[in-house]
Amino acid sequence: MSMKKKIMISLMHGTYGHHDDCYGAIQLANAIVAKGGEVTLFLRSDGVYFAMKAQNPTGLGLPNNLAEISDFLELGGTIKVDSNALTSRGLEPRDLIDEAEIMDSALAIDLIEQHEFCLTF
Amino acid sequence: MTETGNFNSLGIVIAHTAAVHENAHQVVSLGLEAMKRGKRVGFFLLSDGVYNAIRGSGEVAAGLSQAISGGGKVFLSSEHVVASGIPGEKLIPGTETLEKPYEALVDLIMEEWDRVIMC
Amino acid sequence: MGQGDNVLEEKTEKDKTLSILLLRGPYVSEYAEIASKLALTARKKGYKVNMFLYLDGVWLQHIKGFKDFSNPGDWLKRAVRKGVTVRACERCSSARDLTPDDTIKGIEQSGLYSFVDMLAESDRVLTFIG
């Protein structure tokens, strides 16, 4: 079955300490875009850590999120980041991958309007 | 099927306390922002989410009060309110405690709200 | 008759589908029970209902036996029996050594694409995570 829907995945976990949540989210995101759906990954709360440019979990024995993110972007996925969540964690846009689009928190309601479903991870 | 853009009402289901995660505060802010834009907004508090309905308990409770003042709805699961031991007089005025929460929630999700977000 | 059996006596089929994504296991929170109760109630009202057990949510399929205390698996069994389509992520199950012969009957372990198919036919989707 092909997938024509627009899905927003709101990710509030992005750390390697709770890796299964963000890894599960990006696996699902990639499955949806691979079947033709449109996905916006909205990083908020601790989800902003998911897009850290310099992440490297080799020492933890975990796969690097950047590999999955790369697949997601290649398949046409979009990543947006809650600006408040970023700044409240002492981070700046340059700490994240270049493709991450920073957006005002209040505009999250626009994302909800633009997508048929909002899945929370 | 839901059409993208057909968005007049938003449902927000909250199942945990504000202390567990900042998410509860964020979704209440989101609901208030939706109301500013003319959307109908309903909050449904169940499980640990009902603790957010204690009057004066913090920013989430203040946001829920503001939503009610602006015409929003705040529904509480009766079985969870009873389980929590929250006295009725401590609940935010204007909240609606529902005796059959699952039936009400299904009706809201499937027939009333155009979009649903979980917290 | 156990808990939940009396909720499906009158049902008019409706042309809408609800899908529920459960990401948390039983007992650690109430979400597994809430998800199953919602699924069962939606079926009672005549909606088509899907559940997908994902990440730690797959543990719910393993709660098979009788308990003389709270039993989230009992709610899931009733949901399956009443026509809720339940799938569990194959990879998540394998990671936790949850084999098909050690889980509630009627639940198929399948790939993530089966949840994407559920999404494709859904009118509403709920996720349970804490």
Short note summarizing the structure:
The complex is a heterotrimer of chains A (121), B (119) and C (130). Chain B is α/β, with parallel strands linked by helices and 119 residues long. Chain B is 37% helix and 20% strand.
Key words describing this protein structure:
heterotrimer; B: 119 residues; alpha/beta; Hypothetical Protein Ychn, Chain: A; 5-stranded parallel β-sheet; 5 strands; globular; C: 130 residues; 4 helices
Relative helix content of chain A: 25-40%
What is the count of distinct domains of chain A? 1
C-alpha termini separation of chain A: 24 Å
Helical percentage of chain C: 25-40%
Shape-level CATH architecture of chain C: 3-Layer(aba) Sandwich
How many E-type strands of chain C?
5
Helices and strands of chain C, in order, run as: EHEHEHEHE
Can you characterise this structure?
The complex is a heterotrimer of chains A (121), B (119) and C (130). Chain A is an alpha/beta fold and 121 residues long. Helices cover 31% and strands 20% of the residues of chain A. Chain A has a single domain, classed as DsrEFH-like (Hypothetical Protein Ychn, Chain: A). In chain A, strand 2, helix 2 and strand 3 form a beta-alpha-beta unit. The longest helix of chain A is centred in the first third of the chain and has 16 residues. The two termini of chain A are 24 Å apart. Chain B is α/β, with parallel strands linked by helices and 119 residues long. Chain B is globular, with a radius of gyration of 13 Å. Chain C has a single domain, classed as 3-Layer(aba) Sandwich (Hypothetical Protein Ychn, Chain: A), CATH 3.40.1260.10. In chain C, helix 1 packs parallel to helix 2. Chain C is α/β, with parallel strands linked by helices. Chain C contains 4 helices and 5 strands. The chains are: A alpha/beta (121), B alpha/beta (119), C alpha/beta (130). Chains in contact: A-B, A-C, B-C. The interface between B and C is medium-sized, with 19 and 22 residues.
